[in-house]
């Protein structure tokens, strides 16, 4: 699908239904059962259950909603060879950013306040050095973005990406170390419980 065109269609009509060149599934859940590489249930809890799990044809299922797959369906999907990335990890971004906001409110200091101007001066120095070395002006189409020290939203997104990347690395490494855990959902729970246990142990509990 042409994603930008679909977005414009949604803005014009208030719906994604009726988009030219696409098949609409209104009023039922059969859209989940179409052949695809990646299926992302992102709205309803228990959207995939024992009655429709065997008709899911995706290779990878990414749980963007909270609990979109029932326990029984999870077992059936995995028996069919479908890899599931659990909601515990996939939709954690909202909680992560809420934590960032909580930290900001505690300190009353916007993200980047202590270093933004220094970063801008450093980037200006780099741009000037490149211009002197090459004898060419810094490309105008990226100059402003490069010189900017980073808006608060950019820093939040950077922090979110870092947390999600490091968390995924921890999950993937644990599954490689302990393949007997079997699936990403179990591994994510084990990794989370271990982290909580380590925190309690660190404070002597």
Could you describe the 3D structure shown?
The structure is a single chain. With 205 residues, the protein is mainly alpha-helical. Among the domains are: 1-27; 35-91, NAD(P)-binding Rossmann-like Domain (Rossmann fold, 3-Layer(aba) Sandwich); 113-149. It contains 8 helices and 3 strands; from the N terminus they run αββαβαααααα. The protein has helices at 3-13, 71-79, 87-90, 93-107, 116-134, 140-147, 152-177, 184-202, and strands at 38-39, 60-62, 83-85. The chain has a 3-stranded parallel β-sheet with strand order 1-2-3. α4 (93-107) packs across α7 (152-177) and α7 crosses α8 (184-202). The N and C termini lie far apart (53 Å). The model has no long low-confidence stretch (mean pLDDT 91).
In short:
The chain is mainly α.
Features:
single chain; 205 residues; mainly alpha; Rossmann fold; 3 strands; 54% helix
| Structure classification | mainly alpha
Mean pLDDT: 91
| Weakly predicted, low-confidence segments | none
Number of strands: 3
Output the CATH homologous superfamily of the domain at 35-91.
NAD(P)-binding Rossmann-like Domain
Largest sheet: 3 strands, parallel
CATH topology of the domain at 35-91: Rossmann fold
Q: Percent range for helical residues?
A: 40-55%
Spatial order of the strands forming the largest sheet: 1-2-3
